[in-house]
Design brief:
Elements: H1 2-19, H2 22-28, H3 31-35, H4 44-49, H5 58-68, H6 82-89, H7 92-97, H8 113-120, H9 123-132, H10 136-139, H11 141-144, H12 147-153, H13 163-169, H14 173-184, E1 186-187, E2 193-194, H15 198-212, H16 216-222, H17 238-243, H18 251-260, H19 273-280, H20 283-292, H21 306-313, H22 316-328, H23 343-349, H24 353-360, E3 382-384, E4 426-432, H25 452-465, E5 468-474, H26 478-489, E6 499-505, E7 508-509, E8 512-514, E9 520-522, H27 523-528, E10 543-548, E11 557-558, E12 586-590, E13 599-601, E14 605-606, H28 607-619, H29 625-638, E15 641-643, E16 646-648, E17 653-657
Parallel strand pairs: 3-13, 4-5, 4-6, 6-10, 10-12
Antiparallel strand pairs: 1-2, 7-8, 8-9, 11-16, 12-17, 13-14, 15-16
Helix pairs in contact: 1-2, 6-8, 8-9, 8-13, 13-14, 15-16, 16-18, 18-20, 19-20, 19-21, 20-22, 21-22, 21-23, 22-24, 23-24, 25-28, 28-29
Amino acid sequence: MGNEASKLEDKTLTHYLIRGDFGQVRRLATRQLLSSADAARRTVLMLAADAPETPVHTEKCILYLLELGANPKAADANGDTAAHLAARRDHLRLLTLLSFDAKWLRNENGATPLMEAARTGSWKCAKHLLHLLREPRFNECFKHGNSKRSELLGLKDREGRTASDLARLSGHSELASYIEREMRLVVSKGDKISGLTDQEEAVRQKLERLAEAGDLAGLRRAATRGNCDLPDIRGRTALMWAAENSSCGDEAQWEQLVQLGDPTCATILAESCLHHAARTGNSAAASALLAAGASANATGQCEFTPLMLAAINTPSATAAAFGRVLLDSGADWSLKNKYGRTALDLATQKEKSELAELLRGYDGKIYFDEPLALPRRVVTDHAYDEEPSDDEADPTPEGAISVKAIRHQPSRHEEEDFYPVTNPQGFCLIINISEYDRGSDITFNFEERQGSDRDVDRVKRVFESLRFIVRIKNDLTVEQVDNFLNEIKILPDLAKHGSFVCFLMAHGSHDCIYGRDGFPYKVRKLTGKFKSSVCRSLEGKPKVFFIQACRGSRRDRVDAAKSREQTDEAPAPVFNSAIRPPEGDFLLCYATTEGSAAFRNIDSGSRYVQTACEFIEKYFRELDLITIMTKVSGHLQKNPVRIKDGLFHVVPQKVDQLSRLVSFDPERARKV
């Protein structure tokens, strides 16, 4: 029985670790639990390494486990360490945080993590491991010259195959060529990198010029995953030059660039791309790098972290905002450099008053005793036994569209203020994930989202009446969601449509939803599939996403007698670029603000979706969509959710990047 209890505790801790819930990880983790293993001899760290992707907040969770005594060199029944498992999954964030020695151990087949990354085509992890050996601190050039680097890159498994051999045998010839080029480079005792061919050097210089000129779009067009990390003699890459250029601030371009280049790559002085972003306060670069797996606590020369460099170099006007990006991603404010100075010491010395004030809020606090800078505890979309108030009753009879749509007051806007309306208006996708797989290490405690079928029925009824083509997908895995959206974005019918609507209903956290298999799918990645540069058929057309999912577990409790005194409270300002749409003509409508739970009634559906449908039915002829959703927000804020133990605020959030007004009135359709 004790063994079964230990397995359950392992699963629970792994579950929260993968989701980046530091509060729960800190509550559950013990030294004994971290040393325990399952039947395959896998520890919690190994189970987490076997997840394909984790949010930025997982960094602090992993660091805490390592601080508590998790052994990164422990091996499972196959001799695989956490590094081997992460390399196979291309789990860059976890691999980055492991010690250097733990990244070069062999399994029972004699394979290193680099070999596993090469065999599985895991570009991100392969690059990370290759690029570590550009740094003299790991290469030990003064002691060994280039020999240690050559030895590690030339290691062979039990069958005599190198990493490049395995990549080529597995069909990853481009990666094999990349590894072979890296083996050709020489890091000298004088801390210089050489070995590029004349052609490679010409390409590198071109990328550097584009980055220095601030031509991020040009850099994106010229860059490939094969050339993006070409180093100069000091190990600087195109990503570093661009990160250090404050004019390179296009978030959409950065999101694409970090998929090509290595966000963890560092110079011979151990200064990472994130350090370079800190020199000018390039928050767009920093956010993209962190989301892609860069460590907020990477240390460079003299043990300076990005937060310390921000205190020294970032312009005063943007230093606090840049510091917030780092702190929100798990940066440790208490770290000291080689000279015993913290980021606060340096900010005070450099008279960065706003950043210093921000850091003083953490002064004297222990890093692992504190939640993340912007608390976002990630839990699921809660079902609950709510006692609905009278004003919640659905006024529309089952199966009927409301005939009470108001027409008595004409619109005050001119026709050209609106996006064109077509017949049909467009697709309305409904992705509803109510049932989750059981028995895995990740998803075991995702409860069924009872009541979500009521939301699906209501949305279908409303949007079909508005002449949308409704497509419903239930209980998809992350891969199936991705495949479905990839199919939709290339449909020729999109060119005939005037708009695009998507409802996402699932368990979620602050920046993602969870598929049926329990793996996260970032909202930004999902919406990015429909931006103009990817989906030309929707260029200049409104793309509207309604997201019914938790973004945390906080519930804003109110006293029943005072609940109406806070009705005009606005949603919290958005600092995290991960929740913003990738470009214009997007509207994201969240059921709740970051850090908060989204409520759902198991009998009548979610408060947010049902209210949104009610107000769209009522006002679609009279009002534009933004005005309608503002009314939805006002109504929900005035009517807290009643649960057995009290009243709780519901505060939706809109992220508006529309260029015109959106009307759902089908009578506006242009007759072709």
